[in-house]
Design brief:
four-stranded mixed β-sheet, three-stranded antiparallel β-sheet, flat, 1 helix, mainly beta, single chain
């Protein structure tokens, strides 16, 4: 196991994740990728063989084949957190916003390029003003 550091893309706080070095990182993004399955750094993984568990390490969900990445909550989850290296800030590090570590993923032997998840927006149809508002005050009539 090795400690791998990831920076929050919003505030620069550093998360350290203890993991096997064989995992292939794709990217760290402030948004989830469409179709990716994320787990928390604290989630426990599947059962392992006796030989795998002889090392004494607990299984982690992000090391299973079912996980496509890790969802961090900046400064608030099970990873070890610190301030950015160039910072002299006091207090707890992190902004509390989620960010995502994406692993390389393959389908049919080809690497899948991730796209941000679609966000549905509700339009304010029928709620818009009927026209621009002019100035109010003395000398202006409506």
């Amino acid at each position: 196991m090795v400690d791998v550091s990831y920076y929050c893309p919003r505030c620069g706080a550093v998360a350290e994740l203890d993991r096997d070095p064989y995992l292939a990182d794709k990217s760290v993004t402030p948004f989830p990728l469409e179709g990716w399955t994320y787990v928390s750094p604290a989630d426990e993984g599947a059962e392992r063989s006796f030989a795998e568990s002889a090392s004494g390490d607990e299984p982690r969900a992000y090391e299973s084949d079912d996980a496509d990445g890790v969802k961090f909550v900046c400064g608030a989850d099970a990873a070890a957190w610190s301030h950015p290296p160039e910072s002299d800030a006091d207090g707890e590090p992190g902004c509390g916003e989620p960010f995502y570590l994406n692993f390389v993923r393959y389908e049919n032997g080809e690497e899948v390029s991730g796209q941000p998840e679609s966000e549905y927006v509700q339009l304010a149809e029928g709620m818009a003003p009927s026209g621009p508002q002019g100035p109010n005050g003395p000398g202006f009539s409506r």
